[in-house]
Amino acid sequence: RTAHFRDPLGPQLHFASESFIDEIASSVNADPVAFRLRYLKDSRDIGVIKAAAEKSGWKTRPSGRNVPKGDGVVQGRGIAYAQRNGAVIAIVAEVEVYRKSGRVWPRGFTAGVDHGLVVNPEGLRLATEGNVIQATSRALFEEVMFDRENVTSTDWESYPILETPDMPESVEVVSINRKDLSPRGAGEPSTRPVAAAIANAIYDATGVRLRRAPFTAERVKAAIG
User: Fold this and answer.
1) CA–CA distance, 223 with 208 (Å, rounded to integer)
2) Are strands 170-175 and 104-114 parallel, antiparallel or unpaired?
3) What interhelical angle do 32-39 and 43-56 show, nearest 10?
4) What does the angle CA 60 – CA 42 – CA 50 come to, to the nearest 5 degrees?
5) 90 φ, ψ to 5°?
6) In 3D, which of 74, 65, 79, 80 has the Cα closest to residue 96?
7) What confidence tens digit (pLDDT) does each residue in 160-179 have?
8) Which of 28, 68, 42, 31 is nearest to 200 (CA)?
9) What residues are paired with 174 via a beta bridge?
10) For residues 109-148, b (16+ Cβ closer than 10 Å) or e, as one string?
11) Within 10 Å of residue 196's Cβ, how many Cβ atoms?
12) Among 167, 205, 211, which residue's Cα sits nearest to residue 72?
């Protein structure tokens, strides 16, 4: 039996591209938000990034600097943005990384979204929340495993998903209502930048760049170690 899978291509594509942009910003000692804004021209791109950053209380500084040592819990924030079908979305992720176990808890998200004309504000908020939660599950847990003959992920033990203890405390949504544009749809676009935002936040917290998803505890612990 199958089920709906939001934005099948987008998260992995932008995990690569937005992680790389973040890596470039770090290499030149630049703040990730300021670095993106330096090269963007379109007002809609600029608008969602500024909206997400301002609402999240973003503090301007390069990512991944002065990372604490030891086995404690470290915190970080990361941003990523994307376009999809005429919509533009920026996501700020705030994470806690448990260095001893490798667990990543995305404690909060802020989304700046521009879907053109907003017809149903509450529906837009709920759709964005749903996108962010499903994309977080994919970023942290979901992975189809297989041997030389068959898929071995056959149940919720072998194919884990996000459960209540790992849910974020909040998903804040800032919507930019473009009354001069037609509605662009909100069913899938905010799924797209979530994995990259989480990965960039993990880098900020640990100084370690993850290039393979999902960011399981085992993978994160091995990377930090």
Assistant:
1) 7
2) parallel
3) 160
4) 25
5) -125, 140
6) 74
7) 999 999 999 999 999 999 99
8) 31
9) 112
10) bbbbbbbbebeeeeebbebbbbbbbbbbbbbbbbeeeeee
11) 31
12) 205
Q: What is the largest CA-CA distance in the chain?
A: 54
Q: Are 201 and 219 a contacting pair, CB within 8 Å?
A: no
**Cα first-last separation, the chain:** 39
In sequence order, the 6+-apart residues with CB closer than 8 A to the CB of 120 are: none
Looking at residue 1, its pLDDT comes to: 56
| CB of 172 closer than 8 Å to CB of 110 | yes
- Which residues touch 25 (CB under 8 Å, ≥6 apart)? 31, 32, 35, 36, 62, 63
Q: How much is the average pLDDT of 154-161? A: 91
Helix (H, G, I), strand (E, B) or coil at 175: strand
Place of tokens 């149903």: 120
Distance CA 150, CA 158 (A): 13
Say how far residue 91 (Cα) sits from the centre of its chain.
6
Label each residue of 65-118 as H, E or C: CCCCCCCCEEEEEEEEEEEECCEEEEEEEEEEEECCCCCEEEEEEEEEEECCCC
Contacts of 217 (CB under 8 A, 6+ apart): 98, 101, 102, 103, 104
Q: Could you report the per-residue pLDDT of 73-106, keeping only the tens digit for each?
A: 999 999 999 999 999 999 999 999 999 999 999 9
- How far is the C-alpha of 22 from the C-alpha of 19, rounded, in Å? 5
